[in-house]
Specification:
- The protein is α+β, with helices and mostly antiparallel strands.
- Among the domains are: 232 residues, Aminohydrolase, N-terminal nucleophile (Ntn) domain (Glutamine Phosphoribosylpyrophosphate, subunit 1, domain 1), CATH 3.60.20; 205 residues, Rossmann fold (3-Layer(aba) Sandwich).
- Helix content is 45%, strand content 17%.
- It has 28 helices and 22 strands.
- The strands form 5 sheets. Strands 4, 5, 6, 7, 13, 14 and 15 form a 7-stranded antiparallel sheet that branches. The protein has a 6-stranded antiparallel sheet with strand order 2-3-1-9-8-12, covered by helices on one side.
- A hairpin with a 2-residue loop joins strand 21 and strand 22.
- Helix 1 runs antiparallel to helix 4, helix 2 packs across helix 3 and helix 27 crosses helix 28.
- The longest helix has 18 residues.
- It is globular, with a radius of gyration of 24 Å.
């Protein structure tokens, strides 16, 4: 796993070595083992590629990047892993004389031979830039589901309507020095700001800065003939015909076993995250069954917050499979101490507070291994989140007599306290959230439950700019990823939308940020293309029936996993951020979220103050939106 950056300029304007070095240094945490910088200057054409390396496959100097073919015509800087590179290498051996045992050279050889069609042959995760010097052409590409990030910006080197230069990087913090060198001013994108306040993250292709974009998952961006082309999609989930339920269980286990087996490929120590949830337990089960040595597993828990602690379930899985289990117990001091370094590191505000425990487990895991497998993607594939059950709950609730709902239940819910600090308070919070849905449209309901707060809160807090039609964004995301997948029901379409929308922009972004901050590579077997294609084509009743979520996954592993893990309900990987806002983070919040800072951001201080008072009095649980404001204002201080 690595960091990449670079510039392509068809006006021939070179980039100063100091700016390229700054981009490289900003990515040092992603690749502490090696770094490289390549430049090419010719009449009317300039290209530069930057790389920092975390050596995982063939860690010898032969894997140094940026990497070139023997003739020096083709160059690549690449972040990721191609798990089937040995098979591709065998297929390419007659056309290309391989000099290394790293997947970088295989990726380059495949691109030389097959061009963009090669992207469909790769099983892995990637973000890369490929340059053909003779053709003065190439492209950027990002993997199918957005496991690896890629930011970019385009501009004009002279007269003309088309963009003539392109700058890119794995992280925005590395892209900024390249843009500053070109005199680009960074201004906040108001649409992105509203998205952030609505969701806690900025969904691709937007970023918090106008003019900087995220390359969307499953897309490539070509440059040729003196211009930068718009991004185009190269991947959609193909349609599939599902087998019967019993056959589907067998096929699912076969595909998951192959996905985990492929991701065991490593020349450095490898282990797995073990949260205690079903998805990570499945990954560990398959890893243990197919490993020739004892598997290393890693989990964290809270020393004095049992409602957030899953370690007893993780321990049960570790005992079942005889893993070398490492368990780390966190105190509030540990959690609070991790916040400042993370906020200092982020070049774009990101308010999913589960980034904090993900960073801490990554730090502890990195003391033992360089690569870890995770269960991310399972909730989106198998309908594991609370909000998927919400559609059933809402239908049942609306069957109650309208007067009972309007004059008794809803006033009582509005007056009751809400928080995540206890089971019954959290159920009240979820019931209130359920009633945010004021429409019969499933996407409108899903959008309402995905928000940090009610629509009106964001509109009052951020009055400048237009509204955000989150439901339509979800629909578009799902259509783009799987228009041929044939989703016969609303919930299947919503799962597909989350796979394309929140999974890459929130969950995978969180894991990449947290793990690479500590130079740890994380691999995601659930997002193997063969697994995703198969599960996306299954009927919704295979995934949930009645109150049972992840039905087929539970049934497929019923004889292998501990019963208590199979029976348990999902717990989020959370920190008690709401209680921290009332106690340990109170002074830091008040010192950071100042009226003057809010006004500079175009936000309304009185609305923020009301949200704070509601949270402190427990009239409402406002932790999510308050933490988003805290992160945003800290980011503003850092990047102003």
């Amino acid at each position: 796993m690595c960091g990449i950056a670079g510039v392509i300029d068809y006006s021939g304007r070179p980039v100063e070595a100091q700016a390229l070095a700054a981009a490289r240094d900003a990515l040092a945490h992603r690749g502490p083992d090696d770094s490289g910088l390549w430049r090419h200057e010719a009449d009317g054409f300039f290209a530069a590629l930057v790389h920092t390396r975390l050596a995982v496959l063939d860690p010898s100097p032969a894997g140094h990047q940026p990497f070139a073919d023997p003739a020096g015509r083709y160059h690549i800087t690449y972040n990721g892993e191609i798990y089937n590179f040995h098979d591709l290498q065998d297929e390419l051996a007659g056309d290309y004389a391989f000099r290394t045992q790293c997947d970088t050279e295989t990726l380059l050889a495949a691109l030389i031979r097959w061009g963009p069609e090669a992207l469909g042959r790769f099983n892995g995760m990637w973000a890369f830039a490929f340059v053909d010097l003779a053709g003065r052409a190439g492209w950027l590409a990002r993997d199918r589901f957005g496991i690896k990030p890629l930011y970019y910006a385009t501009g004009h080197g002279g007269a003309g309507a088309s963009a003539t230069w392109l700058a890119f990087a794995s992280e925005m913090r590395a892209l900024v020095p390249l843009l500053r060198e070109r005199g680009v001013s960074l201004e906040i994108d108001r649409e992105a700001l509203r998205l952030y306040l609505s969701l806690g993250f900025v969904q691709h292709p937007l970023t918090i800065f106008r003019g900087i974009r995220k390359l969307a998952p499953g897309h490539r961006l070509a440059f040729a003939n003196g211009r930068i082309e718009p991004p185009e999609r190269f991947y959609r989930i193909p349609a599939a015909s599902p087998p019967d339920y019993e056959t589907a269980q067998v096929e699912l286990r076969t595909r998951l076993a192959a996905a985990v087996g492929a991701r065991r490929l490593s020349d450095v120590p490898l282990g797995a995250f073990l949260s205690g949830g079903l998805d990570s337990a499945v990954v560990v089960a398959e890893l243990a069954r197919h490993s020739g040595s004892r598997v290393k597993t890693f989990s964290i828990g809270y020393a004095d917050q049992p409602q957030y602690d899953e370690t007893r379930f993780a321990r049960a899985v570790a005992e079942r499979f005889g893993t070398e289990h490492h368990e780390f117990r966190l105190t509030p001091t540990d959690v609070l101490g991790a916040i400042d370094p993370l906020l200092e590191h982020m070049a774009e505000p990101f308010a999913d507070s589960s980034l904090i425990p993900t960073s801490l487990v990554s730090y502890h895991t990195r003391q033992h291994v360089t690569v870890a497998l995770s269960g991310d993607g399972g909730d989106e594939l198998f309908a594991g989140y609370w909000r998927y059950r919400g559609h059933d709950y809402l239908r049942r609730y609306r069957r109650l007599p309208a007067p009972l709902r309007r004059w008794l239940i809803e006033p009582l819910l509005a007056a009751a306290p809400a928080a995540k600090s206890s089971g019954w308070l959290n159920r009240l919070r979820q019931a209130r959230k359920l009633l945010r849905a004021g429409s019969d449209d499933p996407f409108e309901c899903h959008a309402a439950w995905s928000r940090l707060a009610e629509v009106g809160v964001v509109e009052d807090l951020c009055p400048e700019g237009g509204g955000i039609d989150l439901a339509e964004r979800l629909r578009d995301a799902g259509r783009g990823l799987g228009p041929d997948a044939g989703q016969p029901d609303a919930l299947s379409a919503i799962l597909l939308a989350d796979l394309a929308f929140s999974l890459p922009a929130d969950m995978l972004a969180k894991v990449d940020t947290a793990s690479m901050f500590h130079s740890l590579e994380v691999r995601v077997p659930m997002l193997d293309p063969a697994v995703v294609q198969f599960v996306a084509g299954l009927p919704i009743e295979y995934k949930r029936r009645g109150g049972q979520q992840k039905r087929i996954l539970r049934d497929a592993y019923a004889g292998l996993l501990p019963p208590e893990v199979l029976r348990r309900r999902k717990m989020g990987f959370e920190v008690p951020i709401g209680e921290f806002m009332r106690r340990e983070l109170r002074e830091a919040y008040l010192d950071t979220v100042r009226d003057s800072t809010l006004r500079e951001l175009g936000l309304t201080p009185s609305v923020a103050s009301s949200l704070w008072q509601e949270h402190q009095s427990r009239r409402a649980e406002r932790a999510d939106v308050l933490y988003a404001l805290f992160v945003l204002c800290r980011w503003r201080e850092r990047w102003s």
